[in-house]
Amino acid sequence: MAQLPNWLKPFDSSYRRALQSWLEPRAGRKVACFDADGTLWFEDIGESFLRWLLAGPLEPLVERDPELYTKYEDRVRKDLVDGYGWAVQLMAGLAEKDIVRWARQHAAAWPNYRSAMLGMIRGLEQLGFEVWIVSASNHWVVAATAQKMGLDPAHVIAIRSEVKDGKLTDRLLDPIPCMQGKVAAINKWIGHRPDLAVGDGMGDLAMLEISQQPLVVGTRKKRDAPLIRVAHEHGWPVHLFD
């Protein structure tokens, strides 16, 4: 058995046991899929970016409807796919080049990266894994954040809409990578069942279920979160951050 690498040491023993078998050389393609918000970093950068847009470039929408963000939260509570998709549709009419620039600025200012998860990504890359981010946030801010982390933005699958004449439209591109849509997106854009998958919420469940080794993260304050309960039922490794 390979010696335990430093990047594994911050994790709970169940994680270490699950990942140690992957330290040995393996032939063939190896794929690791990570959720983004709540997994690679604390909190939700997609929602943070949306709030920023609503306070600036999309302020006219809020002037017409001051309850817009509350309506977004209501949609998410009722239907994750609808809510997260609607957040991207609200960006319709903005120039993509501006969104790319704002997303890079937002990623540069984002303070919530989890160093242990970044260490895991680096360790898996050294073992020959393709690392992908599969997120239900908007594509532009997740791609910018991935690039800041040193990952290939081309390995980001997230919600995006069609672009016409340089501006976003409200026509979402399928499949929407949330819940079962994460599986459809993995099949379309990666074409390989994940060897490892890491997530923190019920929107990640379908992705975890198709992976050879599901891994769940959460926080000690929310140790009874729905996905953590599912993980315990299935015997999946769970790591809780402070």
Query: How many whole angstroms does the radius of gyration measure?
Result: 18 Å
Strand order of the largest sheet: 3-2-1-6-7-8
CATH class: Alpha Beta
Q: Give the SSE string.
A: HEHHHHHHEHEEEHEHEHE
User: Mind telling me the CATH superfamily name?
Assistant: HAD superfamily/HAD-like
Strand content: 15-25%
Helix count, DSSP H or I runs of 4 or more residues = 11
Helix content: 40-55%
Instruction: Enter the CATH topology name.
Output: Rossmann fold
- The backbone outline, from C-alpha atoms, is globular
> How would you classify the quaternary structure?
single chain
Please describe the biggest sheet, giving its number of strands, its sense, and whether it closes into a barrel: 6 strands, parallel
Roughly how many Å apart are the termini? 30 Å
SS content category: alpha/beta
| Mean residue pLDDT | 96
Low-pLDDT runs: none
Number of strands: 8
CATH architecture, by name, is 3-Layer(aba) Sandwich
Structure description:
The longest helix is centred in the middle third of the chain and has 14 residues, at 96-109. The protein has a six-stranded parallel beta sheet, with helices on both faces. It has a two-stranded antiparallel sheet with strand order 4-5. It has 242 residues and is α/β, with parallel strands linked by helices. The chain starts with 12 loop residues before the first helix and ends with a strand. The mean pLDDT is 96. The protein has one domain: Rossmann fold (3-Layer(aba) Sandwich), CATH 3.40.50.1000. It has helices at 13-20, 45-55, 59-64, 68-78, 80-89, 96-109, 115-126, 139-148, 180-189, 205-210, 226-234; strands at 31-34, 130-138, 156-159, 161-164, 167-172, 196-199, 213-219, 238-241. Helix 4 runs antiparallel to helix 5 and helix 6 (96-109) packs across helix 8 (139-148). The radius of gyration is 18 Å and the shape is globular. 44% of the residues lie in helices and 17% in strands. The chain has eleven helices and eight strands. Helix 8 (139-148) links the parallel strand 2 (130-138) and strand 3.
